[in-house]
Amino acid sequence: MKQENGNIIELSHLTKRFGETKALDDFSLSVREGELFGLLGPNGAGKTTAIFAMLGLYPIDEGEMRLFGRRMPEDAAYIKARVGIVPQQISVYEDLTVRENIAFFGQLYGLSKEEARHQADAALAFVQLSEQEKKFPRQLSGGMMRRLNIACGIVHRPKLIFMDEPTVAIDPQSRNTILENIRQLNRDGATIIYTSHYMEEVELLCHRVAIMDTGRVIAEGTPDELKELVTTVESLRIHAPRIGQATIGQIGALSFVQNVRVEGEEICADIQKGASVMPVLELLQEDHVAFTTVSLERPTLNSVFLTLTGKALRE
């Protein structure tokens, strides 16, 4: 259903308190119909509270929420029938087969028994689990379980889907399959709110991204627009497989280094644009750390996140 202003989600000045703590603090957000939208933030930023509020699971203290042009909670039944949820935790029933799980969730979302059975066929085919339909969840691999989790959340063909860490702790092949599933859902017309600790996924998938901290949006835009916010920073990457924590600490203490971290066999540091990298290389040589390639790159979305929040996404 096309919204008059093109927005499928409109949140205005939301406040949600838990005792003395403001989990949402004057939180506003708009998501356009058809977007694949990334919602990022460190632990405690308010992401989960915002999503639970949109799902009608948390009453808000102040502000207004509209989904599909309807007010929440006044039109909660209408909204919930058009929303799908793929939670981070696997939420299936061990004593039901793969097919039975999907059909059961279809009925929970309001489909008739016959509709749920029919839609289960389509969901099974979509996540490539048709050959596993008679198995029980305990017989599936981790990647298959994740795909089953997705099938249960989309069986009723929702127009708005919340996906929370759908690729966590799975093998690369299953991850690629799930990412392509997500792209296809979006191409088929679903608006998707996507949270992940894998920043490269967000860069690959999302049209726009909002970064949250302390209960409010602190930056919003396309990945490229967000990178422009930290044009004074460059990303230094050095392949150094055997670097120790002491050396990492010394590099992080350099005045022109803002953040330093290890990604695989590479040390990555966000440094002031134009700064010489020689002090970093000299530290590596003094500590007898072997290194090969050295490169300076445009800031990544991860660099933007670290610069704006001062926190790592995986904290």
Describe this structure in words.
The protein has 315 residues and is α/β, with parallel strands linked by helices. The chain has 2 domains: 215 residues, Rossmann fold (3-Layer(aba) Sandwich), CATH 3.40.50; 67 residues, Alpha-Beta Plaits, CATH 3.30.70. It has 11 helices and 14 strands. Strands 6-7-8-3-9-10 form a 6-stranded mixed beta sheet. It has a 4-stranded antiparallel beta sheet with strand order 2-1-4-5. Strands 12-13-11-14 form a 4-stranded antiparallel beta sheet, sandwiched between helices. α4 packs across α5. The radius of gyration is 22 Å and the shape is globular. The model has no long low-confidence stretch (mean pLDDT 93).
Helix and strand element order: EEEHEEHEHHHEHEHEEHEHEEHEH
Tell me, rounded to a whole number, the average pLDDT.
93
Shape: globular
**CATH homology superfamily name of the largest domain:** P-loop containing nucleotide triphosphate hydrolases
Number of domains: 2
Count of β-strands: 14
Classify the beta-strand content into a percent band. 25-35%
Q: What is the CATH T-level topology of the largest domain?
A: Rossmann fold
Which spans have pLDDT < 50 for at least 5 consecutive residues? none
Protein structure class:
alpha/beta
Largest sheet: 6 strands, mixed
Regarding CATH, which class of the largest domain?
Alpha Beta
From the N-terminal CA to the C-terminal CA, the straight-line distance is 38 Å
- Cα-atom Rg, whole angstroms? 22 Å
Helix content: 25-40%
Strand order of the largest sheet: 6-7-8-3-9-10
CATH architecture group name of the largest domain: 3-Layer(aba) Sandwich
